Amino acid sequence: MLNFEGKAKQPPDGEIVIIVSKFNGSITERLLDGALAALRENSVSEQNITVCRAPGAFEIPLVASHYAEQPNILAIICLGAVIKGETSHDEHINRAVSLEIAKIGTENKKPVIFGLLTCNTVEQAITRSGGAAAAHDKAVGKKAYIGNKGYEAAEAALEMIDLMQQLPSLDYTAPVREIMNMLAKLLSDNGSIGVDDIYETPFDFDEEKDSTYRGYYDEGKDEYYFDDDEDEDDNDDDDVANEFYEFVKGLRGRSAKKKSAKTKPFKKKVAKKSKKKRK
Q1: Cα torsion at 52, 56, 58, 59 (round to 10°)?
Q2: Of 128, 157, 154, whose CA–CA distance to 30 is shortest?
Q3: How much is the pTM?
Q4: Number of domains into which the chain is organized
Q5: In which domain, by residue range, is 104 found?
Q6: Taking burial as the number of CB atoms within 10 A of a residue's CB, which of 30, 54, 185, 233 is the most buried?
């Protein structure tokens, strides 16, 4: 069983962007202080930290999308505070911003951390920006930022950077390249492929069943036979491989016909002259 888990530690070379809302600045500046403290504690150089201040929370996704497209950016931390008022204005802001931040992260395959406070009262916002810990003068280090969502957002960004580094890369172009290589081999003058060639490609065949397959190739019938003890219902991979093999074999046949047609000797047509009867 594979197990991947990121850790908050010093990231590789790259830049971390913090986008903080200026609205409710007394709250958001505390969030920013907590985020910067978390990054410093994990040996992130200040030269690799960029802080952008947006007018409000609603403008944060636009700035985030700008940085998300840049390859040197490791993660983006979005900080803000939206406090409920007398209208439902806060609900529309929170919904729009949260959806856009999630979309930016998935589309760019890059950690974009949601560090916005969505509180009903100012007191709740103060508590979530580390107000409780800040009341203790003797609190130092990580304890000084207990309950600070900016600190937690920065830690989440570092964990996600480490996690994304561990995940296996997905090359979606590999199957296309393999198909093109097989077709090129098939259509060449001396090219030929078999079912084994198909199983060696990065297509989704069951590895456990592949290891138990035994079979033989009948040259007379030009067919490949599998000999295993599995039920017919469990041989979906066999069917897919054989169907693909028959498909490319048909292409080979059509290509051979076209080549044979081109290689036929050219016979020059000579118009027959009609003999005139002499009077």
Answers
A1: -40
A2: 128
A3: 0.61
A4: 2
A5: 15-166
A6: 30
Residues paired with residue 21 on neighbouring β-strands, in sequence order: 54
Q: Is residue 106 part of a domain?
A: yes
Regarding whether 148 and 73 lie in a shared domain, the answer is yes
**Listed residue (208, 17, 216, 46) closest to 112, CA to CA:** 17
Same domain, 22 and 152: yes
Position 19 scores a pLDDT of 98
CATH number of the domain encompassing residue 159 = 3.40.50.960
Where does residue 53 rank: exposed (0-12), middle (13-18), buried (19+ CB within 10 A)?
middle
Find the catalytic residue in 66, 89, 92, 136.
89
In a domain, 119, yes or no: yes
- SS3 sequence, 22-83? CCCHHHHHHHHHHHHHHHHHCCCCHHHEEEEEECCHHHHHHHHHHHHCCCCEEEEEEEEEEE
pLDDT value of residue 122: 93
Active site annotation includes 89: yes
Residue 7 maps to a domain? no
Which tokens sit at 236?
């979906």
The answer to whether residues 180 and 78 belong to one domain is no
